[in-house]
Specification:
The structure is a homodimer. Chain A is of the alpha/beta class. Chain A has eight helices and ten strands. The structure holds a DNA duplex.
DNA sequence: GTTTAATCGATAAAATTTTACCCTTTTAGA
DNA sequence: TCTAAAAGGGTAAAATTTTATCGATTAAAC
């Protein structure tokens, strides 16, 4: 009944292609063409879509509008959530300035930092607020999501504080695995993880082409 | 023989904990304590480690130094690769300024952008270079890895150019699935993907606690 | 020295995810 | 109208990944 995590991870890509197709004036899209765009297996796309309960029409495909709405809904991106950022360093600043979150139902509404030098400065459209004002801000604005972009050494302390203030979802960019109570959800996003996969694949690829090179020498 | 992708994705976390333990003066670490730190299953950790060929000692665990070296080697992080960034926007700038890449064998050596306003400006320790100078730079410095941080609409064009210049590995931050020849490796890193998982988990969690609330009402 | 408890390692089972197969539906064209 | 081709959908198989089980090993405590 519940949707597999790998499927959920593919959903944002589907949305992206769907939007593209819609902008191109199309009304229907087949699993096959979705798959082609994304380099996926069409059967897998169909299976992913089937988990939303949406049905397609043979020879035509799926109704783009309907599919978009369902996926958006499954992801909970149809209701915008306010979120705040803790940590006004490079990454925090970049995220604060990034304007693409709106399309996935996330609205950054404030940026916090503990450094006296940063408090009061401007990042994009935000004025950096102090950690002392965090609790009140969360409660007055009923914030349930926080983005952590502080150094690893401070991440757990910040996390604990956020949890105490009532935050329920944490998007953690610090390279640190946070301990939270069962009622709180943490998702860690780690550049290193992604780069590890690139490294290994590239290493393998380079080794292959070296092999080819030596094969060629033997001709 | 080849290491599963999920295992590779966990390797950077292992390295992080290993470093931490080493700094704490420890010489050995058990799969169990690694697992505890990361919220993983100890059996899984042992299995992951076994794919490196390293053997541990019962009752003691694994030699931290040895394990670190092997994992680093498997990831190819023992040889530093020079890389360049294309796209000096928010994200590109943040990445250029980020100093944590060194620990995973990645050294950003230049930043490129096509915008005349940005060329010549300074980002961290880099002076933004023009796209015209890209080809020459790649060849003179034998760069094989590029980071793409341009908008989605330009990503494929930039990618094609990079491939033509001889780039073999592309770390793509643009929300766009790039088509590359078979000899090139692309890894896409997407904030939306990560956030999707958080959204769904959080939605489920919030629904659960709503259920509990209503249950309590019934008492 | 013996016992105990922690841990490893190998193999097997379970769970999850991806892929294959085959049949049905529907549109477009002969 | 009939036929062909392009999907979709359901079920089952295959592949991958995670978890369990159990015996073997080893340092530390007694």
């Amino acid at each position: 009944m519940s949707i597999p995590i790998p499927t959920i991870k593919r959903f944002p890509s589907y949305l992206r292609i769907l939007n593209q197709a819609k902008e191109g004036g199309r009304k229907y899209i087949s699993a096959t063409s979705l798959a082609n765009e994304l380099g996926l297996n069409p059967i897998q796309v169909r299976k992913d879509i089937s988990s939303t309960g949406i049905e397609g029409k043979p020879k035509i495909g799926f109704d783009i509008e309907e599919l978009t709405q369902y996926i958006t809904h499954v992801l909970g991106w149809d209701n915008t959530s306010d979120a705040l950022i803790v940590g006004a360093g490079n990454l925090g600043s970049a995220i604060a300035r990034y304007d693409g979150f709106a399309s996935y139902g996330l609205k950054i509404v404030a940026v916090f930092d503990k450094s006296a030098e940063k408090i009061g400065t401007t990042i994009g459209s935000f004025t950096v607020k102090s950690m002392e004002s965090l609790n009140r801000f969360i409660n007055e604005n009923r914030i349930s999501i926080a983005v952590i972009t502080v150094p690893a050494s401070q991440a757990q302390a910040v996390c604990d504080l956020l949890v105490k203030c009532g935050i329920r979802g944490i998007w953690n960019f610090a390279p640190k695995d946070l301990k939270v109570p069962e009622s709180v959800v943490v998702q860690r996003t780690d550049l290193a993880t992604s780069f590890a996969v690139l490294s290994v694949k590239l290493g393998k690829k380079l080794a292959e082409s070296d092999d080819l090179d030596s094969d060629e020498d033997m001709i």
